[in-house]
Structures are given as structure tokens and as C-alpha cells.
Amino acid sequence: MGDVLFLAHRVPFPPDRGDKIRSFHLLRHLAGHRRVHLAAFADDSRDIDRPELATVTASRAIVRRGKSRAVAAVQSLVSGRPVSLTAFDDAAMRRAVCEVLAREDIETILVFSSQMAQYLPADTRARVVMDFVDMDSAKFAAYAEAAKGPMRWMLAREARLLARFEAEVAARVDASLFVSAAEAGLFRRTTGAERVQAIENGIDTAHFDPAAGFAPVAADGALIVFTGQMDYRPNIEAVTWFARDILPRVRAAHPEARFAIVGRNPGEAVKALASPHVIVTGEVADVRGWLAAAAVVVAPLKLARGVQNKVLEAMAMARPVAASSAAAEGIDHAGTIAVGATAADLVEAVTMLLSDRAAAAALGCNARARVIARYGWDARLAPLDDLMGLLAQLGEAA
Questions:
Q1: Residue range(s) defining the domain that contains residue 237
Q2: Does 249 lie in the same domain as 118?
Q3: What b/e sequence results for 360-384 when a residue is b if at least 16 CB atoms lie within 10 Å of its CB, and e otherwise?
Q4: What highest taxon heads this organism's lineage (predicted)?
Q5: Are 109 and 4 in contact (CB under 8 A)?
């Protein structure tokens, strides 16, 4: 049987942010059946050489990505292409992909994220599975609705061009994957694509386990925790909303409560939120200590697509979670987390969880049980075997 070429817009290790968590587990799953060749971008110098990937890949072509947003925007306007594509358009990556295809017996190509679909060869005979994860064009359309002036025009343009590209890619590939049934359904309705399937995110419940070995974090008072990549716009908007509109009302009932924003690369807008009752940690070695210390974990995202890893991680750690309706969508959460559509709803949910610790603990226990039963990675990725031709290989081996 032939090999797999795995194209990723970020090196899928370490699995410490949403996209890298999903791509790493996809990669590891495939490596259990086939030789896998990885071609990926590194936007962190530490990702240029990750020796851990040698155990799950037959070869690796890692290209450093340093193109600025301004350059990508200019190239987009000149070429008429989405910024999302010009930002990842790189001659070195094109050469790397061509070399792998010429050198190896590639039977299947898995493309992770729409940015990498531009590297698909026009005449390939390989089976192609496209993991869009989320419908990025819909995300930019939502951004455009909330923007004003030139930025509104730019975001609307991005949504329009990216939607056209997504539909063209879906028409070429053998299967298009999304992280939730809702996202897959939206894509079908919008594009008319037929070979569309949901493969949900999972969670490593042995790693995210309150009984696992990790360094504890000391917490004074009631700690409310948010985790995420803090240069990601929806996360910035979420913590800003919580710190300004929700936390003061929670502290009216619980003046000891503090809010911890835990995640790498906080920009000036996030750092400006820091105060005696708002902690901005920056990058931490292990998020589990902060989750374990949380009286409540919050996910107040106004814009969220698919399954939120931050919510699954908190659930797996048996923490009580208060999430926005957007953050909870796509997760089988009934009876396991508190959900609110408005600031008032989230104030009520967080206040209740801080006031009734027994109920909060019970909710956390139910959440962990749900994650164990529903979101193990092996179960979530099982449908991938048929799509990638892995079941045929297993049958021949038998």
C-alpha cells in the first residue's frame, strides 16, 4: 500500500493549541497504519526541529513562515486571492511538496486547513481528504458584520473569495471534513458539496485527568479561568467581554473572585486587562495546573466554530464550566456544563457555580464522565479509516 502525504499549516507538535491538537492526533492515527510524510509550516522557531515527530513520520519537510500580514494583504489585493492563501503561499513549500510526490509512493493526501489546499497538484491520482476543520469563510463573514469602514470591506472580500475557493476545493477532493455536524451542514448548504463529513475533536482523558501528575497552581480565593491562544481574535474578544462586562457583576456577589487569562502571546489589548483581580499569565508549561485550580472555567466566546478544545479539556479535568452558547455548540454537553447566551446569563451561571460548590463539583464529575464516554480520540477518528483507505489495507493484511 502507498504512503500518506500530510499537509499542515502549522507543525502538529506540541499539541498545545486547538489546531495543533487536532492535527497531531490525526497524524498519530494515520501513522498507526501507514508511512506518513509531513510537509508543514513553522511559525515558531522551536517547531523547525521537533524530534518527537520522528516517531510518527517517515519524513518531514518543515518550512519557516515569516511573511507579514501587510505583505500578504498587498499580495492578496494584487492577485485577487484571499489573504488566507497569500499568507501561506511559499515557493519553498511548493518545492518541498513536489519533491515528496516525486520521491515517495503517495497514495493518499490529507490536507489540514484550507490554506494548504493550494499545494494540491492539479493532476494527482492520489486519494485526497480535505480537513477544513471549520468553515473559515463563514468566520470572516461574521467578522465583517461586526466591522466598520475599510476593514468591513476587506473582511467581506475575504469571506467571498475564500467561500469560492472552499467550494472549488470541495469539488476536487474525495472527502471534505469538518469538526462538527453543524459546520458540515452549513458547508453543504452553502456550497452544494456532497462528499462532506463531520469528524469531531476528541480529548486525551489520561492526560487531562485531575488525578494525573502535574504541577499544581496555588489559588487565593475563587479562581475563574480561561485558556486559549491569546493572539486569536475570538479569544481576545471573549476575555475582554468577560473582564469588562461579566467579572465586575460576578465580583459584586463574590468579591474574592479573580479571573486568570491563561495562554501564549497575549497582545497589548489583553495585557491591558491585567489588574489586582485579573491575571494574564502568558505562555505556561502545563495548562492542567491552572484548570485544576479553577473554581470555574469559562468560555465566553461570541464567535466560535466547531468543537472547542478548551471546553473539552476543562470537562475532562472535571471542572465546572460556564460557556457561551457559541462555545457550547457542537459539544454533547447536556447536563454537564452551564450555558448562557448573554452577559446576564453568564453572570448568573458563574455566580451560581461559585455559590454552590457541591453542585459545581457534581457538574464537573458529570462533565468528565461525558468526555470519557463520548470524546476519546480513537472513537472520534474511527471514520477516518475508511475515508483514507486504511480499512482496505487492514483487510488485505488479514
A1: 223-374
A2: no
A3: beebbebbbebbeebbbbeebbeeb
A4: Bacteria
A5: yes
One pLDDT digit (tens) per residue for the chain, 398 residues: 799 999 999 999 998 888 999 999 999 999 999 999 999 999 988 999 999 999 999 999 999 999 999 999 999 999 999 999 999 999 999 999 999 999 999 999 999 999 999 999 988 999 999 999 999 999 999 999 989 999 999 999 999 999 999 999 999 999 999 998 889 999 999 999 999 999 998 899 999 999 999 999 988 889 999 999 999 999 999 999 999 999 999 999 999 999 999 999 999 999 999 999 999 999 999 999 999 999 999 999 998 776 788 999 999 999 999 999 999 987 888 889 999 999 999 999 999 999 999 999 999 999 999 999 888 898 889 889 888 876 544 444 43
| Distance linking the first and last C-alpha atoms of the chain | 14
Beta partners for residue 223, in sequence order:
258
Is residue 331 domain-shared with residue 382, that is, in the same domain?
A: no
Minimal CA–CA distance to 101: which of 1, 2, 5?
5
CB 311 within 8 A of CB 321: yes
Please report whether residue 212 resides in a domain: no
**Shortest CA distance to 291 belongs to which of 319, 259, 328?**
319
Distance CA 258, CA 4 (A): 47
Q: Which three cell numbers stand for residue 103?
A: 520521491
pTM: 0.81
Q: Which of 301, 297, 303 is nearest to 315 (CA)?
A: 297
Domain count, the chain: 2
217 within a domain of the structure (yes/no): no
Q: What are phi and psi of 82, to 5 degrees?
A: -65, 145
Which residue, among 46, 37, 40, has the nearest Cα to 62 in the 3D structure? Answer: 40
CB 173 within 8 A of CB 128: yes
Same domain assignment for residues 93 and 7: yes
- Please state whether beta strands 223-227 and 196-198 pair in parallel, antiparallel, or not at all (unpaired): unpaired
Cα radius of gyration rounded to whole Å, the chain: 21
State the Cα–Cα distance between residues 297 and 314, nearest whole angstrom. Answer: 7
Return the CATH number at 246: 3.40.50.2000
Q: Residue 133 and residue 131: Cα distance in Å, rounded?
A: 5
Judge contact between 211 and 162, C-beta under 8 A. no
